[in-house]
Structures are given as C-alpha cells and as structure tokens.
Design brief:
By secondary structure, this protein is mainly alpha-helical. It contains 16 helices and 2 strands. The two termini are 16 Å apart.
Amino acid sequence: MKNLTIPRVTVSAASRLGLKQTFDLINPHLYTVDQRIKEQARAFDPAVEGYISYALDNGGKHLRPALAILAGGATGKITSAHIDLAIILELIHMATLVHDDIIDGADRRRDQPTPNAKWGNTISVLLGDCLFSHALKLATNFSNTEISRRIADAATEVCSGEIIQTQRRFDLKLSTADYFRIIEMKTAALFAAAAELGAFISEASPDSISALKQYGLKLGTAYQVYDDLLDLVGNEAEAGKTLGTDLRKGKLTLPLIILLQSARGQENQDISNQLLRGEDADIEAIIEAVDRHGALKTAANTALRMVKEANDGLSVVPENRYTAGLKSVGVYVGEIIAPFGKKRD
C-alpha cells in the first residue's frame, strides 16, 4: 500500500542539546530504574520468569519515569521513593503495551517480536496481567496510602480508556470530545500520575502539584495524538513497531474525526463506507483524503497547542534545572509532532 511521505523528523540542535542535558541530569536515576525493572522478573516463579524478562527487556523511552524524577527534582530532592514510583508506572505502562499489541494484532514493537507474536494471545494476556498485579503490589510499599491509591486510580483509568476505545470501534459518531476523553484515560493518565506524584512525594505546594499534574495530562494527550498520526502515515522501519492498526481495527483517531467533520455529502458517505470496509484500497483513499482536507495539519496543530499549554503551566513551579528539563521534554515532543503538520509530497 502506498503511503504519503512524511518529512523526516528534524529536531533542532537546541532541542537535542536540551534533551541530552535533561537526560544526562537524571541518567543515574534512569539507569537505576532500568536495572531494577529488569530485576523484577526474579520475583516470579521460574516457569514464568522468562516471559516476564522478555517483556521487561524492551529498551523503551522511559518517558514516564523521566517525568516522575524530573518533577521530584523540580519541587525538592530526588529520593528512593521517586525511583520506586518510576518503576511502578513503567511496569503498568509495559503491561498496557502487552495488552495493546494483542488487541491490535501487532507483531513487532521496538524492532522485536511482540509477546503475542512469540507465544500467542493466551500467554500474553496473562503476562500483561502479571505485570499489572506486580506493579500494584509494589505500590503498597509506600507508607502514604494516598500514593498507592493514586497509582491504582491511574491504572484503572488506563484500562477503562482501553475498554471505551474498544467499545467505540467503527463508531462514526465518535466526537472530538469523546476521543480526547479516551486518550486522556488510556495514555495521559500515567503521564499525569508521574508528574503529579513526583511532586507529591517531594511535598511540593498544592499549586505546584496541580500544575505538574496538568503538565503531564496535556503532554501525554499530545503524545498520544502524535502516536495516532504516526500509526496513520508513519514509517514502520523508522518507528520500529507495527503501524496501520488503528484504521484496520476501526479506531477513529483525531485526524479521522476531523476528516469526517469536514467532508460533506456524498464524499462523507464514501469515506464512512471506506472506514467500515477497511480494505487496502479504502485505507489508501482515506489517508489521501485526510491529507487533502488538512486533517493531519489540524490534528498536529491541536497537539502542538497542548504542548505549549503544558510548558506554559510550569510557570508556577520553582525555576531550576529540573523544571527546565521538563520544558525541554515538551519542546522535543513538539518538534516530533511538527512534521505531521507540513504539506505532504
């Protein structure tokens, strides 16, 4: 199937430097998080350990751990509790990826076979369940039960968002508000929990905690819009994972919703029929229509506004190198979104 050509992401030198400095700043903490995540496999029965180890050894971006640690440093001193939080949230995220790949029928993630491609859906469902339950077990170690409760709330939000998204597959009446509600639950909830609880553990002011929660919520929402754009018109070789699953599984993402809202008359009916059929020729026609109507650009610009709002909201958080780091993450996310707003070849 012929795809539109997306301009290669060109992150500015200033953004690359800012992001490098940010990760250099917290790299010792992220290294600890990474090592301790890999060690979690030993907590399971030897017959299960190999499956867990495979799922945990994926070399992800660790965005959620980074936000938890940066938020902690922005509002106080980074402690072992921030590391524990980072590990727990990443385990929950990994559990969602295992389940997502089953739902989407994806066979590759981060350039390796997904658990469902390797062992089938039955083991993979149980593998995701193990990761979820283990993360929530670790959360009970916090002396402040409010932290454990907030983590459990975020996990519930993630799962509920996935259920609602699955319920609304092939629903051509899905509104923009419905879409944002779904992605705030299934993706942004963990970003928000990372930033909010990072500050909460540091005993930050209520204003700072609230601002960081909103930062995480908006950044996470924008990041999901980016991921949805990538799935629609991205390059699998560059992304390192299976793409094109949203259209085939009937998930109406922001550019598709914008397309349906802008198309009129017979064209709207034709696009609706193509979405419901989901054949290769239909998908190619939909992608071309998305670009022709400017839906990619509109969706990208919406996400860019969210990134700006996320960074602007940090003005009430104490200014220091960790707060600057949070802003650099926002700038980077904005720059990887920006190419989707440019005219396609």
